[in-house]
Amino acid sequence: MGLKRITTKEGEIYFVDSITNKRVQNENDVNNIFCDKCIKETLPQSTGNLWSINFVGTTIKEIGEYCSICGSVVVEKHFVLFGIPIHSYGFYRVKRIRIPKLLIDDNSKFFARKLKIQKRLNK
Questions:
Q1: What is the rounded distance in angstroms from the CA atom of residue 23 to the CA atom of residue 4?
Q2: Which residue of 14, 28, 64, 103 is 20 to 30 Å from 111, comparing CA positions?
Q3: Is the CB of residue 69 less than 8 Å from the CB of residue 95?
Q4: Residue 103 predicted with pLDDT over 50
Q5: Model-level pTM?
Q6: pLDDT computed for residue 110 by the predictor
């Protein structure tokens, strides 16, 4: 689930929602990426850059609440030390971007919005 990146023969790049198959006019237009319900429960704040060197850094972990309307999912951003979560930076709603023609599934590209209510969800 997520957005598919399309490149035309002329070099134009645009995104298509993989659930609704609707073209997203502007990749930064949150109204075309997240549904109204998800926009209402979030703030326009992203996770920022994620980084990792030798199992030390920041990461996001999927924790639940999949949206059947827009396909986004709730994640928690952590600082990790050797893969062990040390500090939580909060909860976000994430919609992944799928780029066709890649040999591997690249999960590093996504749109995110911070949840207004920062609480641990029961899975």
A1: 9
A2: 103
A3: no
A4: no
A5: 0.68
A6: 82
Is the predicted pLDDT of residue 109 greater than 80, yes or no? no
Tens digit of pLDDT for each residue in 20-69?
677 765 545 555 678 889 889 998 888 888 888 888 999 898 888 888 88
Rounded to whole angstroms, how far apart are CA atoms 91 and 38? 13
CA torsion through residues 38, 43, 47, 49, sign:
positive
DSSP-derived secondary structure for 11-59: --EEEEETTT-PEES-TT-GGGTS-HHHHHTEES-------EETTEEEE
- CA 92, 74, 61, 111 dihedral sign is negative
**The residue to which tokens 């059947």 are assigned:** 68
> Which residues contact residue 20 at a Cβ distance below 8 angstroms, ignoring those fewer than 6 apart?
none
* C-alpha 10, offset from chain centre: 28
